[in-house]
Amino acid sequence: MHGSRLLVSATSLLMVFSVGLLFSGCAKHSDFVDIREELRAVVKTQDQEQKRLEGLTRRVQTLEAVKEKDADPLRQRLDDLAARLTKLESRMARLEESPGSGTPSLSSKVEPPPATDLGKSIKPTKPSPTPETSPLLPGVPGLSPTSAFNLAYNDYLNGRYDMAVIGFQRFVKDFPTASLVPNAYYWLGESYYNLKDYVRAIQAYEQVVTEHPGSEKVPAALYKIGLSASETGDTGKAKKYLKRVLEEFAMSEEAKLAKNRLAELR
């Protein structure tokens, strides 16, 4: 359209100029030829610019169409993910609020494995991941007991025993009635054991034995008290707790380990 307007303008100028030459009486054939050539050049240039403008317009329209086409599926995926996350959070909240119902509690799904001696056949395995896992530190408002426990336990699994000690200590302080408290004391003892702080390890294991006698961690805690006592040189105490494992939990995996360790101490 711009090219057409310029063409009309150029043509009009040519006519005016030609009429002026006629009236002035000084028009020559060569003048008309020059003017016509100049007009053709102008028209040709305007045609090229017009085509270039039309090409750019088509490219912009194509890009806008592609952008709009790609944006719709992405927006839909984001909406779907947000809806799924909301449903998961709601489900987790219901599970944690009803520990006495027939539905397994969230903590039971991520409870760590039984105890183990260092270098022995039984090794701790990483608890099942849950949607509750959070990058926040234990004690931060809104952090669930399961998430707080998992943070400390992951530090233990990755060999960050100092951080694990802090995490488990904070857990038992912030969630004293949580079902994972016996586990937290046991893994606190394991963290101290790996740091070779056997006195504090014994204290943590004893919390499991004395404060939570019904916990499945008791045989493991008794066994590790025996190992820790042996490391401090208290052979008498070590034998006492290793024998308790044999007497009270004869069918446990820890009983087999305790029997072998007792044989070494004699």
TrEMBL record:
Biological processes per GO annotation: cell division
Start and stop residues of the TPR repeats: 182-215
Keywords on record: TPR repeat
Pfam families associated with the record: TPR_6
Keyword Cell membrane (UniProt): no
PROSITE patterns assigned: PROKAR_LIPOPROTEIN, TPR
Span list, region Disordered: 93-140
Name of the protein described by the UniProt record: TPR repeat containing exported protein periplasmic protein contains a protein prenylyltransferase domain protein
Originating species: Nitrospira tepida
